[in-house]
Amino acid sequence: MTKAHKATSQESFLLRRKLTVEGLGESQWEDFIHELNHHPCVDFAAHKPGDRLFVTYDGSHWSTDELLDLIAGYGGKLPGGWWTRRKLAWYRFTDDNVRANANHEPFCCSKIPPMKRK
Question: Which residue of 10, 71, 72, 88 is 20 to 30 Å from 109, comparing CA positions?
């Protein structure tokens, strides 16, 4: 059985993120997950063993950087290794791509594409 998404989430723009967050206590994790699950752009958030954060959000309205700001607001931080930097770069790239696709207005295939003026 599949999980039903929030009514505010557009399923085609949902992005899943898996991050390791350091520096949060158990009560901070509970408050953090509660706030994420009640955020209008977040579809699902969970805390897994090993201080892992699993979050699914609407990429047309929210981004990885806003998630990182929220993590820092609770006193957490991400590990500073190569793999984390690489993963964050990929997450930011896909955030930009989803946001661009959400704002794109398609044109009819039988018409000439709009021309850019110089």
Answer: 10
Closest CA to 59 of 33, 41, 45: 41
Compute the chain's Rg from CA coordinates.
17
Written in H, E and C, the secondary structure of the chain is: CCCCCCCCCCHHHEEEEEEECECCCHHHHHHHHHHHHCCCCEEEEEEECCCEEEEEEECCCCCHHHHHHHHHHCCCECCCCHHHHHHHHHHHHHHHHHHHHHHCCCCCCCCCCCCCCC
Tokens 């977040």, residue located: 42
Indicate whether this model's pTM tops 0.70: yes
